[in-house]
Amino acid sequence: MVTWPWQRDRTVARTLRVRSRGDFGDVRRVDFEELAPDIDTFLGQAAYLQLGYFETLSELIAPTPELTQKESISVAAGAALHKHRAILALIRERGDDPLDLMLPFREPLDAFRRSTHGARSLETMLSVHITAGMLDDFYLALSSSYGQTGRRVADILRGDDDRQALVDIITDAIAADEQWKSLLALWGRRLVGDTLLIARAALRPQTLDAAEERKVEPVFTDLLGAHSRRMSAMGLDA
């Protein structure tokens, strides 16, 4: 389990709930404010995650041979960078230094990026699509805990991520070579455990007791359900 250092403890009323969204089905609200991280942790992690997506996608541009695919990857990278900068601007508006808030999470989130970086470009594209999708959903669920600041972060995260082009590249590769299907399905299943560990580590307690586990279960159930739908949309088994 990753150990997360907690930053300044600002008093903010926190209520963690699953947001209403079409692909998650019925709305379920889960109130466990004692588990939600402080607002500095929330903002620092959210900002650094978006920077990580940008970094990973940017690294894929040079080795990608097709010009149209280079453009698609660059657009998705640009969307992540836009969200990163928007969260940084919000942090600065609050009078904080974004580097101070992000620095505690650099090491664990960089380790997460390395562990989910595939040996092949298609695996890494799938990593970004799956991990960013799950963690964006999780941070959207967290966002309702932080009042107006949380609503602004939610608006940022709901912005266009331009990752559908990555899905198109993946599905085209599967259509051209059926062997990709089983390989990417296996890779997609591998990503889930590492991604859920990152989500769990974002919660205030480093370990959860049985009662706390029951409180968070609906959120993680929704994350897994959305993951399954993302995989199915690409013709992959979750």
What would your notes on this structure say?
This protein has 238 residues and is mainly α. It has a single domain (34-233), classed as Ferritin. It is built from nine helices and no strands. The protein has helices spanning 39-61, 67-93, 98-102, 106-115, 121-143, 147-157, 164-176, 179-201, 210-233. It starts with 38 loop residues before the first helix and ends in a 5-residue tail after the last helix. Mean pLDDT is 85; it is low at 1-30.
The total of helices stands at 9
The largest β sheet comes out as:
none
For this entry, what is the oligomeric state of its chains? single chain
The amount of beta strand, in percent, is under 5%
Average pLDDT, all residues: 85
The percent range for helix content is 55-70%
Order of helices and strands: HHHHHHHHH
Q: Would you identify the CATH architecture?
A: Up-down Bundle
Give keywords.
mainly alpha; disordered N terminus; single chain; 238 residues
Short description:
The protein contains nine helices and no strands. The chain has 238 residues and is mainly alpha-helical. The radius of gyration is 17 Å and the shape is globular.
Topology:
Blueprint: H1 39-61, H2 67-93, H3 98-102, H4 106-115, H5 121-143, H6 147-157, H7 164-176, H8 179-201, H9 210-233
Helix pairs in contact: 1-2, 1-4, 1-5, 2-6, 5-6, 5-7, 5-8, 5-9, 8-9
